[in-house]
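INFO batch 0412 | record 1 of 1 | parsing
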Amino acid sequence: MQVECYDESGREVYDMILRQILQEVQVTRAVKDVQIYVDPREPVFIIVVQYEKTAPPVVLEDFAEYEYDTEANEAFIKIKNENYLPELLKKLWELEGRNKIHQPSRFEVIIDDPQLKLEGMVVHDPEEDLKKKVYDAIFRIIPEGFRVVEHYSEGNIIALTCSDEYIKEEYLEKTRQIIKRMKENKKSYEVTTPPDIKVKPSKDAKTSPASTKLGRKFYE
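INFO prediction complete | emitting tokens
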């Protein structure tokens, strides 16, 4: 995990916030890498998260058997593993309507006039569940006021580029650089301001005594 900031004290604060929120959302072990670039002088905030691979989706055939009764116009599902029954019922209620779903026993579910296709129906998707938690963590980490967000997702990588008014092309280029570096799995990098991002602090801007010079290396 890396936080890149021109100010050392700011870097330490965001590093602490990052680790605390990942722990609160309970995704610390599921997150493979996180890279943050923040410069409030622009302002710009970039966060790129790479999460671990998850188990494959659970489909209906993995824990149940089913058959269609054309005469009665019903679908009968026999449950073999109750672990996924609550999720199955929730999905059936959403897709078919609660009034069409009946449960004569713990191991039986009947659908009146079934309209959905049961074959290969995904009941539980670990990756989607993890992504929801990751997005929850990301939006807790993003500073208030950074309302303009450019979203990018590829495979197990999620990236958000944020600012207060508009997203500059150089911000997106910086995001692409971070993603590339993450894919290459580099363990250290130079903390430098990209040539195309020209930071001009205001006359009233104060530099923290703990601020670091550009070019210092940070290691995980």
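INFO post-check: The longest helix spans residues 8-25.
INFO record closed
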